[in-house]
From TrEMBL:
The keyword Kinase does not apply. This is asparagine synthase (glutamine-hydrolyzing). Residues 1-205 form the Glutamine amidotransferase type-2 domain. SUPFAM superfamilies: Adenine nucleotide alpha hydrolases-like, N-terminal nucleophile aminohydrolases (Ntn hydrolases). It comes from the Bacteria. Belongs to the asparagine synthetase family. It catalyses: L-aspartate + L-glutamine + ATP + H2O = L-asparagine + L-glutamate + AMP + diphosphate + H(+). CDD domains: Asn_synthase_B_C. Coiled coil: none annotated. Its EC number is 6.3.5.4.
Amino acid sequence: MPGLVGYTDRLKKHDSSMLSNMRNLLKYFDWYIDAELYSDGIVNATQTHLGIINKTIAPHHMSNRFSIWIEGEFYNQEKLKAKYNVLSTTDNELFLNIYNSTKSFKFLKDIDGYYAAALYDNQKKQLYLITDRYGFKPFYWGLINDNLVWSSELKGFLGHKDFKCVIDRIAVEEFFDFGHQLENRTWFESIELVPPASVIAFDIDKAQVTIENYWSWNDIKFINESIDEAEIADEIGRLFKQSVEHRVNKNERVGISLSGGLDSRAILAATPETHTPLHTLTFGKKDCDDIIIAKKVSKIKGAHHHVLDLNSKDWLNLRINGVWGSDGSISLLHMHGSEFCDKYKSYMDFSLNGFAGDLVCGGSYLNSNNFEKKITHDIIRKKTNCNKDSFVFNDWYRINKTDPYFVNNRVRRFTNSGLIIVSKYVENKIPFFDNDLVEFIYAMPDRARYKSNIYNKMLLRTFPEYFRTIPWQSTGAPISCPDYLVKLVSFKKKLFRRLKREAGRFGFKERNPVDYTDYPEWIRQEPARGLFSEILLNKSSLYPEYIDSKMVHGHLHDHMTHKSNHHNELCLYLTFEVWLQQIFNNRFRQ
């Protein structure tokens, strides 16, 4: 990140200044590296990036015919070169060499990567937009006056002179219902995300678009015979360590955002011992459980652990910038740790992230009534309270599993937003979405993953010193504990919270060593209190065009006077208003 921008110009109306303006909207710092402003009179494209990966000149050309721009990286280059018998030194070159030799995009299913790409064939007058298997590298597209326009960030379209910025009312509904948009919808009418595992082909002469999936979940073949859980756990452990090793190269500055959970701890444990120095960073209130646990596991690894104090004074201001950086895709309430991106950059170039490990390995979205079932609208309603029946479950979803829906919506549209913000400073790597690991895990029966059964076994067998005696922040007990002890510890935590709330009613305050934030109370304190009031009560606010201002004012009043907690709603309101000000009035962008 930040990424790619471009457009076709069939009538040759625009000069290079428009392309430069689009790119500048993705450029957060002067130290970013800009690619050339490419134009052959019809196709105009460029890129800006962090200068950490794919440092070669972009675009990469071949045979005076093909030009390619890639944002991101591949992790299995040697395997690809061996399978397709090609030579290359960069991902751009590798992509074009395989495509040129195979004359198709079938090879894309073999790429283990985290990337988006734009490919131009000037002979066929075809432009292709390509996403990785899961579409985690954001890539937006739309047709404007019969021209294809694309950008790695939604804000890039604001630099196109023919773009008319109209807010999608359904997107507003989804944002306030779920905290994010669904499927490929964006804030802007007529602009969508490129679907995961997809190739969008644009015929320039005909101004026609076709979209094809090159991979679907149905490509995964189920394990039908009975399984030995110990053997399965060992194989998952082997594949997970292999995934981390593929994402950690010598002489790279690698770090881990380490919480008190299981997923980031597993990555720390799997990071090769030869990779030093290794930095871990944990944010939260002073002496919270996350920090205590992270400090213990960092000591085992010999990593340099850094504590980032999250408090009532400085949690909000930088999150206003995060709204711009995330294209308003997530409530600022959930931008945990975004205040410390500059710290991340000072210790690392690559951040290993435990992104969605609980879903992939732990089956966190599984329901025992839905084992080995295709996703349906009824399942979605029961799990998410989403009453929409408008989802089109295309070939990408074609598998007797419900998880693909949650990967594509909850993970891709919500969880991923945190990575998007961090990606303005460092490159992210997400080991739990390694192709071999995902294919093996989803070949298993759902019951094996249910309630983290096989995941916990893998962690205890593969990394015992990290998990056998050190507690999990979520329960307060190690995952090796029997269920009855875990329930006892969880009950104790809930009781403590309740007693603390009751004591607070009578003026007694007690330090809470469990939670790493206290957003409801922080919003009532300055400087957040003043900022919420200033923006949401302003007569020039833009949000009343889309949502009921009386409701917003009522929630603000009731929260500030302790009548009720509306911190979630208030942060959604503030995020929405800031985003509207950013795109329509050029405010709050810095």
